[in-house]
Specification:
The complex is a heterodimer of chains A (288) and B (311).
Chain A lengths: L1 H4 L1 H26 L17 H8 L1 H32 L6 H13 L2 H11 L6 H8 L16 H26 L3 H9 L4 H12 L1 H16 L3 H7 L10 H10 L4 H30 L1
Helix pairs in contact in A: 2-14, 3-14, 4-8, 4-11, 4-13, 5-8, 6-12, 8-11, 11-14, 13-14
Chain B lengths: L1 H10 L4 H31 L3 H4 L14 H7 L14 H32 L5 H10 L5 H13 L21 H5 L6 H12 L3 H9 L4 H12 L1 H17 L2 H6 L8 H11 L4 H21 L1 H14 L1
The chains are: A mainly alpha (288), B mainly alpha (311).
Chain lengths: 288, 311
């Protein structure tokens, strides 16, 4: 038995950091949701459920939830679909396959702040490349304001995020495709299945774990979208791109309402938790 | 054009895979060009004076190339155009490199220690503690953000704090604050544990019979066999930390401690129109990442497959 106790020694650094920066932090954040605190003053009065009540009546909070859903609902499926398409095409003995894969993957390794800066320029209303080429091909008659237009700002952020994320889902799908046994395709061919039928009845079902992984990771990631918003739009115009995390950031570090910000963060956590649970449940049910 | 290709393909049914390949090129090559265009434009524009960047139609090839933007950004030459030189941009990159390497080394060590005992040792409470770690993987960083800010502020005896953690700024605005909260990762532990599970127990038992200590077994047998997973997590951790923007934005206040993304983003916010300086800065911030990726490309993609398949 002596051999076993030293195992805790190996765990000690991890456990210590975790108990401070995760376990304690979770508890403290929960405590803060029932208090009002502006971080500068030492006293933090207990206010019960007032933060939660404020939240339900907060127009900006509702807006931020809607924006976050909008962003997630559009960017996650688009990123996955395009990623799957590219992966399917790339999963052939192509010449220059490595180069193509690298090119599609480049945006993933580019710092997001840089991506946001460059795209902000591309969207520029007066000199941006988007307007130039759209005007030149007569797809539009006058320049669009993109990030300054209240109906276009969010789609513009989404387009940029899809561009930045396709490479990741492509690589994950490629790995998934390569783990499908060749015999399955042979058997399907013997049964007379065409290319489309093989895709529909062999490839897609066999990729289910990969798809689930990308979906869960994608939703978790895009619910926390922040950098693009901070650099490109600062939540504007008129809060059309204020996402939940951007709103939490503002509540905490612009208005110094630490209790309220913690409440919003907990709600974000709860939403993610429920989403993930539902997805895992659905996955398990359809799998048995 | 696609229609013609399809018809040709149908006639030679045996060469149908060729059709797929042609289709692949027809779709993938233009697609790849679209993916690279923003980079190409960034690179080209970074060598143009402000007036040319604003030219209409846009210039893909610099008319008279200049490195003034780079000089201004790095504070080497006279300030030109609308841009003001960034404060200590060299320092941002040194900071980023230092912070990202430290976090990577610490994580490799701490994660692998924990993963080893979770995978290969029996001790009371093991599964419970492991589940605890797993459960925290879903907690978004924003929940722990404010408490951690406050914890860092009150670390005793640092940053002007007394022994009770009062009076100063603690680990806020310091390397400790950037490095230590990220020094262990549940995801990393999980990944390494899954990988270590596949190492046969007989190997470890044989070493035990030969009298090897547990730490020796960990460092001489388990670690070397975990090589690919370690490399993959190292690359992830490094790039993730290099790119991280939110945490430095919250805790860092003095320009001496800026990381590259933070310095760049705040520079954007301050000099909204200085595109002739912003774009060179962006190129400089991107290069290390692309170089790391091109060198370790295989491992990078291996790592993603590893996490994708087992996650």
């Amino acid at each position: 038995m002596r051999r076993n106790w030293d195992a805790y020694l190996y765990l000690a650094p991890g456990l210590l950091l975790f108990s401070v920066f995760t376990v304690f932090a979770l508890g403290f954040a929960f405590y803060l949701t029932f208090h009002e605190w502006n971080i500068i003053e030492p006293d933090r009065p207990f206010i019960g459920l007032e933060n939660y009540r404020d939240m339900l009546e907060d127009e900006r909070f509702r807006r931020s939830v809607y924006n976050t859903m909008y962003f997630t609902g559009a960017s996650v499926p688009l990123t996955m679909l395009i990623g799957l398409g590219v992966a399917l095409l790339l999963n052939q003995p192509l010449r220059g396959r490595g180069i193509l894969r690298t090119l599609y993957f480049l945006p993933v390794v580019t710092p997001f702040v840089v991506v946001a800066i460059v795209w902000k320029w591309l969207y520029n209303g007066d000199f941006g490349l988007f307007n130039y080429y759209l005007l030149k091909t007569h797809l539009i008659d006058e320049p669009l304001l993109w990030l300054a237009d209240k109906n276009l700002a969010m789609p513009a952020v989404i387009l940029m995020s899809v561009w930045g994320g396709v490479g990741f889902s492509m690589v994950v799908y490629l790995a998934g495709l390569q783990s499908i046994p060749e015999e399955l395709y042979d058997a399907a061919k013997v049964d007379g299945a065409g290319a489309f039928a093989r895709l529909r009845y062999v490839t897609i079902p066999m990729l289910r774990p990969t798809t689930l992984f990308l979906l869960v990771m994608g939703i978790i990631g895009s619910f926390q979208v922040f950098t693009q918003i901070f650099v490109m739009t600062s939540g504007g115009p008129v809060d059309r791109t204020t996402t939940m995390v951007f709103y939490i950031y503002e509540a905490a570090f612009k208005f110094y309402e630490m209790g309220y910000a913690s409440t919003l963060a907990y709600v974000l956590f709860a939403m993610l938790f429920v989403f993930t649970l539902i997805q895992l449940r659905l996955y398990r049910r359809t799998n048995t | 054009m696609n229609g013609a290709l399809v018809r040709v393909g149908w006639r030679h049914a045996g060469r149908r895979h060729k059709l797929g390949m042609v289709l692949a090129y027809v779709v993938l090559v233009p697609g790849a060009l679209l993916f690279v265009a923003p980079f190409a434009w960034m690179l080209s524009a970074s060598f143009q004076p402000l007036g040319d960047i604003f030219s209409w139609p846009p210039q893909w090839i610099p008319k008279d190339p200049t490195v003034d933007g780079y000089k201004t950004f790095l504070g080497l030459g006279e300030t030109t155009g609308a841009g003001t030189e960034a404060e200590n941009p060299w320092r941002w990159f040194v900071n980023s490199a230092f912070v990202a390497s430290s976090v990577t080394v610490l994580q490799l060590f701490f994660n692998s220690l924990a993963a080893y005992v979770f995978a290969k040792r029996q001790f009371p409470g093991r599964d419970l503690i492991f589940l605890g770690f797993l459960a925290t993987m879903m907690v978004p960083g924003q929940v722990t953000l404010i408490p951690n800010y406050i914890v860092l502020k009150h670390i005793p005896l640092f940053g002007g704090n007394d022994i009770f953690g009062q009076g100063g700024h603690g680990w806020l605005d310091s390397y400790y604050g950037l490095i230590l909260p990220g020094a262990v990762s549940a995801f990393g532990i999980f990944l390494l544990r899954q990988y270590m599970m596949s190492i046969p127990d007989e190997l470890l038992d044989a070493a035990r019979i030969d009298g090897a200590s547990e730490f020796r077994i960990y460092s001489r047998i388990v670690l070397p066999l975990t090589g690919p997973a370690l490399a993959a997590t190292a690359i992830f951790t490094f790039t993730y930390t290099w790119e991280d923007f939110f945490w430095p934005l919250i805790i860092i206040s003095s320009p001496d401690h800026y990381t590259a993304p933070l310095g760049l983003a705040l520079y954007v916010v301050k000099n909204r129109t200085a595109w002739d300086v912003l774009l060179p800065g962006s190129v400089i911030a991107t290069l290390p990442m692309i170089i790391v990726f091109l060198i370790f490309q295989r491992r990078f993609i291996q790592g993603i497959s590893l996490s994708g398949l087992k996650g």
